[in-house]
Specification:
single chain; alpha/beta; 2 domains; four-stranded mixed β-sheet; 6 helices; about 45% helix; elongated; Arc_rbn_hlx_hlx; RHH_8
């Protein structure tokens, strides 16, 4: 199992969000874009989110440590899960960032080796593995 720190803007690890804004907020955003403070609406929103995350960085750090989350990217290969199975163990996956389960992991292997999954961010796995683990994903 490998842990990697996520880079700022990797295109393959971003998630699209939809938000609802009032027309006055939206107008103010458009004004700031028009005046050249930001290149587009998304740029302003990303900047605002990063500023809020920086403001609360200590709380995030303490919570990650207290709840024993892995911060960044956690990948589980078929070999990783087969080794867990050989040891007769089961994983409790807790990730803040991206958890990924290799495409060649069967639903049966996932069920035999993954007790629970809590991901704050995104989980990448085959549809079959996600369906098999549906009652274990929090």
């Amino acid at each position: 199992m490998s842990v990697h720190e996520l880079r700022r803007k990797p295109s393959d690890t971003t998630e699209k969000l939809t938000i609802n804004l009032g027309v006055i907020d939206l107008g103010q955003i458009d004004l700031l874009v028009q005046e050249g403070f930001y290149s587009n609406r998304s740029d302003l929103i990303r900047t605002a989110i990063r500023n809020q995350l920086a403001t609360h960085a200590e709380v995030v750090k303490e919570t990650v440590a207290r709840k024993t989350y892995v911060l960044g990217l956690q990948h589980y290969s078929r070999a990783d899960l087969e080794a867990v199975q050989a040891r007769g163990e089961a994983l409790q996956i807790q990730v803040l960032g991206l958890a990924s389960i290799a495409e060649d992991v069967s639903p049966e292997l996932a069920l035999a080796t993954i007790e629970s999954i809590a991901v704050l961010g995104a989980l990448q796995a085959s549809k079959a593995v996600k369906a098999a683990l549906a009652d274990r994903i929090h």
